[in-house]
């Protein structure tokens, strides 16, 4: 694990100077840990948590999960503050027709978008193997895969799909100016991998796009805050039937997502309040705070 020793040294230095460190927990652990890295992470995690004065979790479900598995966190003040939205971060929304024209995407297809860094844990194979069956069941379906593959092997396997009908590949780093257009051009965003917290899900919601992802307690909590019909959570493997169910659900939704809970003004205030409280105390009791605003 790159940077583990440096991080611990920096935290010890801050601790000696009387600084307080508050951790915002986005992931349970780094993705793609293997072999010796898993042992290194176990040791690092324990030493890292020992330097903390507080912890922020993005859902109550993730907080309970981490407190259950990490005794060191139970002695700390903790709170729940959601992941922030991306409204206007990549520019104001544009019409779907305009976005598709800019990107050269078909105007008359139902577009499922996979967006983001393409890494092994993201289960991209589950999506690519569905292309043929999905199109056979629904000729209007079109899949767009946009992001930079993490390995040459992934890039090679994905590039082999370029000649297939009803798929568009945009392999490589996605410039900021294209992020908005990809979201606005799509009908739904597909995350074929379980998520603890997801920036891509919030990015999709920020541009009014629903998302499809495996059902986990943290993402279920986030979906509840966004409002009914803005997420389709599924159990088991991703199948053409899963995508068909999601499409039917999304076409019947009454309104776009409610982003009130994900406002940066609200998140900023809650974070400052918690940081100020954490600076003044360090508890060894199992009492915790929970704050959404």
Give a written overview of the molecule:
The protein is an alpha/beta fold. The protein folds into 2 domains: 4-83 and 263-280, no CATH class; 96-260, Glycogen Phosphorylase B (Rossmann fold), CATH 3.40.50.2000. It has 12 helices and 9 strands. The strands form 2 sheets. A 6-stranded parallel β-sheet has the order 6-5-4-7-8-9, with helices on both faces. It has a 3-stranded parallel β-sheet with strand order 1-2-3. The longest helix is centred in the last third of the chain and has 17 residues, at 264-280.
Number of helices: 12
Mean pLDDT: 89
Q: What fraction of the residues are assigned to beta strands by DSSP?
A: 5-15%
CATH arch. level architecture of the largest domain: 3-Layer(aba) Sandwich
Give the end-to-end Cα distance, rounded to a whole number of Å. Answer: 35 Å
Tally of discrete structural domains: 2
CATH fold-level name of the largest domain: Rossmann fold
Low-confidence stretches: 282-293
Please describe the topology of this protein.
Layout: H1 4-16, E1 22-25, H2 36-49, E2 54-57, H3 60-69, E3 78-80, H4 96-103, E4 110-115, H5 124-128, H6 131-137, E5 141-147, H7 152-159, E6 167-171, H8 176-185, E7 188-190, H9 199-206, E8 211-214, H10 217-226, E9 231-234, H11 240-251, H12 264-280
Parallel strand pairs: 1-2, 2-3, 4-5, 4-7, 5-6, 7-8, 8-9
Helix pairs in contact: 1-2, 4-8, 6-11
Short description:
By secondary structure, the chain is of the alpha/beta class. A six-stranded parallel sheet has the order 6-5-4-7-8-9, sandwiched between helices. Helix 2 links the parallel strand 1 and strand 2.
């Amino acid at each position: 694990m790159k940077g583990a020793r440096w991080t611990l040294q920096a935290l010890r230095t801050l601790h000696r100077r009387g600084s307080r460190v508050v951790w915002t927990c986005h992931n349970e652990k780094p993705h793609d840990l293997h072999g010796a890295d898993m042992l290194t992470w176990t040791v690092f995690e324990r030493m890292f948590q020992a330097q903390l004065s507080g912890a922020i979790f993005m859902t109550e479900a993730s907080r309970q999960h981490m407190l259950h598995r990490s005794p060191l966190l139970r002695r700390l003040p903790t709170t729940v503050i959601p992941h922030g939205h991306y409204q206007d971060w990549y520019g104001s929304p544009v019409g779907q027709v305009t976005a598709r024209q800019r990107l050269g995407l078909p105007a008359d297809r139902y577009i499922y978008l996979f967006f983001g860094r393409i890494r092994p844990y993201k289960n991209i194979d589950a999506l690519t193997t569905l292309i043929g069956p999905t199109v056979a069941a629904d000729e209007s379906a079109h899949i767009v895969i946009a992001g930079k593959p993490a390995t040459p092997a992934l890039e090679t396997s994905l590039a082999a799909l370029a000649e297939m009908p009803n798929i568009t590949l945009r392999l490589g780093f996605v410039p900021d100016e294209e992020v908005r257009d990809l979201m606005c051009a799509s009908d739904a965003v597909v995350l074929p991998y379980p998520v603890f917290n997801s920036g891509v899900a919030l990015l999709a919601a920020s541009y009014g796009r629903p998302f499809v992802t495996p059902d986990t307690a943290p993402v279920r909590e986030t979906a509840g805050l966004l409002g009914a019909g803005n997420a389709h959570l599924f159990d088991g493997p991703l199948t053409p039937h899963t995508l068909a169910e999601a499409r039917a659900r999304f076409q019947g939704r009454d309104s776009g997502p409610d982003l009130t809970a994900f406002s940066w003004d609200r998140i900023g205030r809650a974070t400052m309040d918690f940081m100020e409280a954490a600076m003044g105390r360090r508890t060894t009791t199992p009492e915790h705070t929970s704050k959404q605003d």
